[in-house]
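Thought: the user wants the 3D structure for the chain below. I'll pass the sequence to the structure tool as-is, report back what it returns, then summarize two notable features.
Action: structure_tool
Action Input:
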Amino acid sequence: MSFATGSVTYYAKANVGVSVNFPEGDISCRWCKLFCRYEDSFKRYSCRLTDEWLLNPFKEIGFNCPLIFEGGESGEV
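Observation:
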């Protein structure tokens, strides 16, 4: 397989641990400041981590939320 000049032949993979604090059991995307963003051109919110459109970021978390809650499974409250 030949690659054009300047093309990527491999990637280095890295992971980071991020803590998100939800006040008084308010489990919603709005508290995830690093990944929850407002897409002005679409007039809606999305998750930078999963590329998911967030239906109600002020009341719930996305269906594909990968957060693992202490004492629970991924996405479980």
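Final Answer: Structure generated. Residues 28 and 60 are 4 Å apart (CA to CA). Residues 25-77 form one domain.
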